[in-house]
Task: inverse folding
């Protein structure tokens, strides 16, 4: 870790510990609330997946309503086959037949920070960072899930990807790293530490024909076909996992979020209670100091008369360590040192950083010491 990053971390730690940990407590409470919100969402997704009817492709018409108007949550497993028209895609990189292709080009940058050691990207403050510019092209053709790998069976379900936002079970078939030629602008980027591109990552992912996957979503019947579409309330649509594996993954995530919410919630309550206690204690000490100062100032005139009446009787060990003329009458709290007269003690207490002249400890307030 560089010195600049270390200073940043130390500043964040000081900010989190400020106000006796109240900032850290509020941040922990926000994390706990976010964990609980995600836990409720994961629990809802788990209930929806568990409520989905598991059926074979050949039995879909028997479990679905026959009028074709209502949709039902169904989980089916089958093999990817081309649609009735037989259209397929052949990507230029792998030349493998498929029904879905995703072509991605991502620019890779160096970790060089420049000769000045700057960690920020000036270009990212004005424009979108090059590190985030990923060019993606997505194509697909209508396809079905068949009950057999050969596709000769008449039992199939049409897959609708129009409103599918969930990730697809794509397979990487093409992966190539293309070096980027340097330019005069690259030297400038090297000097200021902006990060310069060194290679272009070209990648292709496909959904190949014949792959066995599970489709879980809203299924309905038409006059001649059965169609399944995605349900936006669950994180799965097409997946290599079975329904039981989906339930196990969602249950594990829900348990993790549940205990994370409990742990962070308990921690936030402890931190906030500690901050409230420290704040109340501080307010109490300030009130006591204010009352003691008022009593000290009210008795100041009488203290001066007492000091002037016995100036000739003061021994060397009883003189104020600041003015060396008057008797020691004021004790500092909390250290308890009796080393100053009342005027010098008031003068020291009103400084920006009141410190005891003997031990250099912080002065909260003073008390007047009377002889018996």
Result:
């Amino acid at each position: 870790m560089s010195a600049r990053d270390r200073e940043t971390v130390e500043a964040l730690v000081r900010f989190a510990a400020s106000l006796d940990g109240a900032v850290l407590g509020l941040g922990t409470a926000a994390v706990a609330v976010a964990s609980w919100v995600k836990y409720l969402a994961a629990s809802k997704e788990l209930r929806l997946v568990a409520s989905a009817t598991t059926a074979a492709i050949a039995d879909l018409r028997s479990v679905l309503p026959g009028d074709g108007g209502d949709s039902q949550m169904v989980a089916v497993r089958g093999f990817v086959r081309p649609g009735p028209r037989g259209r397929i895609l052949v990507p230029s990189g792998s030349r493998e037949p498929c029904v879905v292709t995703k072509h991605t080009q991502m620019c890779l940058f160096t970790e060089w920070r420049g000769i000045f050691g700057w960690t920020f990207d000036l270009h990212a403050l004005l424009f979108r960072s090059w590190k985030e510019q990923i060019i993606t092209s997505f194509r697909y053709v209508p396809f079905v899930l068949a009950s057999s790998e050969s596709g000769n069976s008449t039992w199939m379900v049409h897959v609708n990807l129009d409103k599918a936002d969930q990730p697809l079970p794509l397979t990487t078939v093409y992966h190539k790293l293309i070096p980027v030629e340097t330019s005069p602008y690259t030297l400038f980027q090297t000097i200021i530490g902006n990060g310069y591109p060194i290679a272009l990552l070209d990648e292709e992912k496909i959904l190949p024909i014949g792959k066995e996957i599970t489709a879980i979503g809203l299924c309905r019947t038409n006059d001649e076909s059965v169609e399944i579409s995605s349900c936006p309330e669950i994180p799965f649509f097409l997946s290599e996992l079975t329904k039981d594996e989906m339930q196990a993954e969602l249950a594990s995530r829900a348990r993790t979020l549940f205990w994370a919410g409990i742990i962070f919630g308990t921690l936030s309550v402890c931190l906030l209670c500690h901050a409230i206690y420290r704040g109340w204690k501080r307010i109490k000490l300030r009130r006591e100091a204010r009352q003691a100062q008022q009593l000290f100032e009210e008795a100041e005139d009488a203290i001066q008369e007492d000091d002037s009446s016995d100036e000739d009787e003061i021994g060397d060990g009883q003189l104020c360590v600041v003015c060396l003329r008057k008797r020691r009458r004021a004790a500092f709290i909390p250290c308890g040192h009796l080393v100053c007269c009342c005027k010098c003690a008031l003068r020291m207490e009103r400084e920006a950083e009141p410190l005891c002249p003997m031990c250099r400890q912080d002065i909260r307030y003073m008390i007047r010491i009377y002889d018996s």
User: Anything to note?
Assistant: Residues 30 and 268 are 9 Å apart (CA to CA).
